Amino acid sequence: MKPSGPFHAVRVSPLAPLNRAHILLYSLALFAALRLRLRLRLHFPATSLPSFLLLAADLLLAFMWFTYQALRWRPVRRREFPDRLLHAVAPDDLPAIDVFICTADALREPPASVASTALSAMAFDYPPEKISVYVSDDGGSAVTLLAFAEAAKFARYWLPFCRENGIVTRSPEDYFRSVEGGEPETVKLEKMFQALKEKVEKALQRGDISNDITQGEEEEEILKKWKGFIRNDHPSIIQVLLQSSKDSDVTGKPLPNLIYVSREKRPTSHHHFKAGALNALTRVSSTMSNAPLILTLDCDTYSNDPRSPLHALCYFLDPAMSSNLAFVQFPQIFQGLNKNDIYATEVKRLYTINPRGKDGLGGPNYVGTGCYFSRCSLQGNTLPPSLPRQPTDSISSEFVIRKAREVTSCTYELGTKWGTKIGFRYGSLSEDFHTGLHLHCQGWKSVFCYPEKPAFLGDVPQNLNDVLSQRKRWSVGLFEVAFSRYCPLTFGTTKASFLEGLSYAHEAFWGSWSIPITIYCILPQLALIYGTPLFPKVSNPLFYLYAYLFLAAYVQDLLEFLAAKGTIRRWWNDQRMWMFIGLTSYLFGTIQFLLKKVGISSQGFNVTSKVVEDEQRERYQKGVFDFRAQSPFFVSLGTVAIVNLSSFAVGLGRAASLQGSLDELFAQLFLSACVVANCWPIYEAMFLRSDGGKMPRMITVFSLLAACFLHGIGYLMFSV
Description:
Keywords: Cell wall biogenesis/degradation, Glycosyltransferase, Membrane, Transferase, Transmembrane, Transmembrane helix
Strand order of the largest sheet: 5-6-4-3-7-11-9-12
Number of helices: 27
Active site: 138, 432
Helix content: 40-55%
Strand content: 5-15%
Binding site for UDP-alpha-D-glucose: 109, 138
Largest sheet: 8 strands, mixed
Number of strands: 13
Shape: globular
Organism: Zingiber officinale
Subcellular location: Endomembrane system
């Protein structure tokens, strides 16, 4: 069949010419401000600490602004036409898809929820015999295997139910959460899934599944082998739970393949976190289904549109771009966000705005989930001869299982190019960023696919400490790439393109935001207390240069946020969290990275908890910040909040009592006011709230002491 038209369309944003004009104008203003900072140095000699800190902050702000302009140079928007694809390609000619789902901790990532994610992918509107779902259990949990053994039984009823009733939300956990009652069949299935969850949760509480596995001799043998296993010391476990050539649903249609994988772990071997798990799945799948396309999903990211494979195929089956197309990245969209997204967990810039900017250069980066890969981009143009394609009716054969165990052993990668030249890349906690950078530098392209209906939905942390911890981990991983031989400023700009390199550099150096944010949240405020001006007077024409730089940056940021279907309240919370993250996640991440570079051990990869308490969820949905954790993050935030509140009060008093003081100190008073406004949830948590989410008293005391210490530093800098 011939296509009735192209499978997709693309258009460059009409704002691109305006962006470029603004880049030129803003660059001139920025250059003038930096020149002014160097020439005048205000009231300080060139060697003074305040002068040096302000200059360092301005240079870093200029660097981060400059690298970001690559993302504004040529943003594009795309549209797919999956119906044209179906008209042109017969179902039998559609390529097979291997789905990879990674989980690492059964206590923090509930196995029943992970199984629900897998079921949503198994229920794609796609030939089931062409789908293989591989689950990597890096936690080595027997309960996770139990959850998937039960999910395999449930799939026999769930998949035909979705198909026959036109169900779009095909994660059973989320579907049953959104419906009440319904037809008898719906009620029956809901009871079945609830029974599955209860069985798994009870086994998790007991820490034992010996009373729950009853499928047959093979499962009993697995139980025997599991005895004595610990999380970081066990052999490979491969279990084929469903096989499309043998298993069918209650209507007689074949079921997708479902394979459980727990790779070998030994205390003496580095397992490379999620990247290592994905590489193990890549090799295991090569021995079994060996599909030409691979979909990676986080364990909490379920399919929200069963037609997402067709959207991806609109690009992979386009002869004009398929030869060098590495992956099609869908945006991360999240469910359960409160009305105003108080923690900015939507991360709109990273997941929706920036990818459109990168898409006009060479393609978006890989963000770890919701991404369809071409297998040859990960394994090279041809598959290794030792891993030939296996027919689906042999995936459970003894030879294949033995081969799968071999490729998931701790020693398999030794002396190979896995993690360096092929597969998902090692060397960074941000393996997604590192992998995308390498693929683009090898000449591969990518596409940002953003259909009107979100293809995938994920969960977000619902307490502030988890959000900040997650972003700290990201910043450390990005620094690991930024300060390596693969630095985007050198490796990216030369191997890919100059603009692509700049766009990657902007994200790689995210942690450096901590320096200007910390300086501008403390230094001008301390100077304000002692009446020392750091910026031109309002009556000085040069004041308006700074005003333009500030207002133009914020207004453009707001307009881009609103254009991406954001709201003003969400934008306000987004810029507040940018400040909070700069003072905590990026600051502590920078310190952790520097300690690691000098050989001081630091914290490794931490799994973000997917378990949410009822009280915590209630606070989050009401838009109330949760500060209950005894976290050093909150000491940092509390200290800055107190310093700015005191400086704002002193500054107001000084402006009211001293003639001309407001003219000289307006810029610093304005900065204090902005920080105080952003810190209002902190003041509430420290002094006004009595609920369970208030800031611990000890954190408040430490914050007050740290603020007093900074005031003493300010006295030495500005008064002595």
